[in-house]
Each structure stands twice: as structure tokens, then as C-alpha cells.
Design brief:
alpha/beta
């Protein structure tokens, strides 16, 4: 059995046992596929992890940078109380339309709002609204700007908030100082920012599974 097949089988077992889907999640995936969205969203196991992190955090407010079709948004929004709030930022208007439909079908449009445009333009506008600090920030957008997104996450959170940065392994290239791809450089800069910033304590974990070889970083805001 190949390594990838084994990873797929284990993921299938864990997902079917611990993170079973439902019609809203299945419909979101069907809608994403029908709309031609790239298959780069989180898996069900990863979505459940995000949901658990938000629940352990006792999150009432969540910021997501990078919506795609809203699959991860549904997992996160389900962790919120009735009066919770989730703001998710999506560059592509077409992706945002799909996500908005998926979120509404899941009955979560009362708590989750999709905002369209480049995140580095949407974030200053969000900050100008002086929102309550976000309890959890999930970053899964263009990787070249990862460090900028971490910096904005710091401005929009409080002591005790969590920041989750997805797709940090970049096929192992994140550890190669000779790698100059903007996504790798942006991710490495974000990791080094987490390591050096006095307000952050973080770690990064390598993962394998249906999405192949990847990983995520997790940081806690200290003050």
C-alpha cells in the first residue's frame, strides 16, 4: 500500500468515526465542486479541529481570512453561541457568492458575514469599525501575505486569543533557506514573526492525510 493510500484510509476512518458530515456540509462541497472552486479547502477532520479549538477557546467572535466556498466557515460558525459573530474575508467575488449560499443553507447567515475584496484592504476597514477583539483568527489565504495577516490578527485580538495559520509546510520547502517562492517566503516570515514577537507564543505541526503532506501553526496572544 502506498503512503498516500494509507494516509487516505486513515483519514477516512478518523473522519467517518469522529467527524461525520451532514447534508449542509455535503451540499457545500457539492456546490464548491459544481462552481469549479479549487479543491484546497480543509478536510472534515481539519474542520472539526477548528471547531474544537473555537469551542475550547469559548470563542464568541471569530475572524477568518480566506473563505473559499465557506466549508471551513461552517465548521467554525457552528462553534459560536447564538449571539456570536464570525467575519470571513474572501478575495474572489465568485467564491464569496458560493460561500454565502453555503453558509445560508447551513442556517448560519445570522452569525457569519462574508466580506469581499483583498484582505489587506478589508482588514483596515474592519479595524476602523472598532470591533470587539476576536477570540480566534483562522488564516488560510494567499501565503505570500501570511506575515501581514498575522500582524493584523494581533491588532484585532486580545490576550488569550488564538491564531491558526494553515498550510505552513509548503511541501517541506519552508525549511529550505534557498526556496524563494513567494508563498514559501511569506510563510517562513510569518513563522519567524510568531517566534520573535513578544506578544506571541506558538508552535507548528506537520500533518499527513487526504490533502497530502502539510501542516499548520498555532499561536496564542500573550498580551
Amino acid at each position: 500500500m502506498s503512503g498516500q493510500q494509507l494516509w487516505d484510509d486513515v483519514d477516512d476512518y478518523f473522519i467517518s468515526t469522529l467527524s461525520p458530515d451532514d447534508e449542509a456540509l455535503r451540499a457545500a462541497l457539492r456546490e464548491n465542486d459544481a462552481a469549479g472552486l479549487p479543491p484546497i479547502g480543509v478536510t472534515a477532520a481539519q474542520g472539526k479541529l477548528l471547531q474544537l479549538l473555537a469551542q475550547v477557546q469559548g470563542a464568541r467572535t471569530i475572524l477568518e481570512i480566506g473563505t473559499l466556498g465557506g466549508y471551513s466557515t461552517i465548521w467554525l460558525a457552528r462553534a459560536l453561541p447564538e449571539d456570536g459573530r464570525l467575519v470571513t474575508l474572501e478575495y474572489s467575488a465568485r467564491h464569496a457568492e458560493v460561500a454565502t449560499r453555503n453558509i445560508a443553507r447551513a442556517g448560519l447567515d445570522r452569525v457569519a458575514q462574508v466580506r469581499v475584496g483583498p484582505a489587506l484592504e478589508s482588514l483596515p476597514k474592519l479595524a476602523d469599525e472598532n470591533p470587539a477583539p476576536f477570540d480566534l483568527v483562522f488564516i488560510d489565504a494567499d501565503k505570500a501575505n501570511n506575515a501581514h495577516y498575522v500582524e493584523w490578527a494581533l491588532r484585532l485580538t486580545r490576550a488569550g486569543s488564538l491564531i491558526v495559520l494553515d498550510n505552513v509546510v509548503r511541501g517541506g520547502r519552508v525549511a529550505d533557506p534557498a526556496a524563494t517562492d513567494p508563498d514559501v517566503v511569506g510563510t517562513r516570515t510569518a513563522i519567524e514573526l510568531i517566534a520573535s514577537h513578544p506578544r506571541l507564543s506558538g508552535t507548528a505541526i506537520q500533518t499527513v492525510g487526504t490533502k497530502g503532506y502539510d501542516g499548520f501553526a498555532l499561536a496564542r496572544v500573550l498580551g
